[in-house]
Specification:
Distance between the termini: 51 Å
Number of helices: 14
Number of strands: 5
Order of helices and strands: HHHHHHHHHHHEEEHEHEH
Structural class: mainly alpha
Shape: elongated
Strand order of the largest sheet: 4-1-2-3-5
Radius of gyration: 44 Å
Largest sheet: 5 strands, mixed
Length: about 375
């Protein structure tokens, strides 16, 4: 990421910025929403499973805490009974623990989605420095956290006081009920009280969720300079791209020059353009342009052709037409077949004359190039 340049961060984050932040574990999270969901699920479990758990506790007390005098004085008896009680108790609450575990995993996904990142769980010991953490206490985020804490204390305290007053008589009446009925009744009272207290935190979560989404978006906002720097990092600087293009052109030019000695003819302007053609008579396909260039590159092509004894034919209109109409390693266009055929016929006659030591043919004159291929 680009360094802070002091510019105002008023631009929405780019997709790359969002992706990088998510990969680093920087996503919107609401601890208040997670807490609310965990408490609500716990309250629901206490209400729905309270009776069975209460009966199970009564059964455990009857079976594990009712022993004869002879057994209780055995040295290992207390350990055995304790192990049995712990095993039965754990088995009794296992379904509830499983649901709470799933809730603890799923609750954070409700805002921000699922993400696992080693960097986010790596200990950061610099956060233990109280001097560095002091400014956070007086930041905007610190103020919001303080307000949320005060709101939670106020809500839970007020609703808890009202709730206690409303069920106070029932709490006193538990002492007059049979034990089994009193345990179940007490668990229900606790469950519904817990549900009401937990439900009061929905107001805090309703405030915190939009705030966390806004804060996350604000933290990721970018300045114009950061967007430009990111674009430069993604696309590459103009200097690097220019260097790459030059390297590619040099490599293509080197490959092109290697094909000049294998050409059948070089058609020239005669000094500004040079076009190297290769024709495979056995394949029956059209001639292929294997090299082309203007000015200095044209001079290099001509010099290489002279060294390799590749014949040069001056045909300015045809040379210009081939240069602008045909790319490297492509066949010549159909409209230039006749003009190129005149040149190739001359080359074949030239080679035949060289074999038989006959008279050299005269170069072709007035090679006709169709008007649509003519270049000024």
């Amino acid at each position: 990421m680009a360094e802070d340049t002091g510019q105002e961060k008023s631009e929405e984050p780019t997709q790359k910025r969002l992706t990088d932040a998510k990969n680093k574990g920087q996503i919107a999270r609401s601890r208040e929403l997670n807490t609310f969901l965990m408490l609500i699920v716990s309250a629901w479990l206490l209400i729905s499973q309270g009776e069975s758990v209460g009966m199970g506790l009564i059964s455990m007390m009857q079976s594990h805490f009712h022993v004869s005098r002879a057994v209780i004085f055995e040295p290992q008896t207390s350990i055995v009974f304790f192990k049995q009680a712990m095993g039965d108790g754990l088995l009794l609450i296992t379904p509830m623990l499983a649901i709470l575990t799933i809730t603890a995993i799923v609750a954070p996904i409700a805002l921000g989605g699922w993400i696992f990142n080693m960097e986010s769980i790596t200990p950061k010991f610099d956060k233990l420095d109280p001097i560095k953490g002091l400014p956070k206490l007086f930041s905007m985020n610190g103020l919001v956290e303080l307000l949320k804490a005060l709101l939670k204390i106020t809500l839970v305290g007020l609703i808890g006081w009202l709730l206690f007053n409303s069920i106070f008589a029932e709490l006193l009446g538990l002492s007059s009920e049979p034990m089994e009925q009193a345990v179940i009744h007490a668990l229900k009272l606790i469950g519904y009280s817990f549900l009401i207290l937990s439900g009061s935190l929905i107001a805090v979560a309703a405030i915190d969720v939009p705030y966390q989404l806004w804060k996350h978006s604000t933290d990721l906002k970018m300045s114009m300079q950061e967007i430009k720097d990111e674009h430069k990092e993604s696309e590459g600087s103009p200097e690097i791209k220019g260097r790459i293009r030059r390297t590619q052109m040099e490599m293509a030019q080197n490959r092109m020059m290697q094909e000049v000695p294998n050409a059948d003819v070089i058609i020239t302007n005669p000094s500004h353009y040079a076009i190297a053609l290769k024709y495979d008579e056995a394949s029956g396909s059209a001639p292929i342009l294997v090299a082309k260039g203007v000015d200095l590159i044209a001079a290099q092509i001509r010099n290489l052709a002279i060294e390799a004894n590749v014949p040069l034919v001056a045909a300015p209109p045809l040379a210009r037409a081939l240069y602008y109409s045909t790319e490297l390693d492509n066949e010549i266009p159909q409209g230039l077949y006749l003009a190129v055929a005149q040149v190739l016929a001359y080359i074949f006659q030239l080679k035949e004359a060289a074999k038989t030591h006959g008279t050299k043919p005269a170069p072709p004159k007035d090679i006709q190039v169709p008007s649509e291929f003519k270049q000024e």
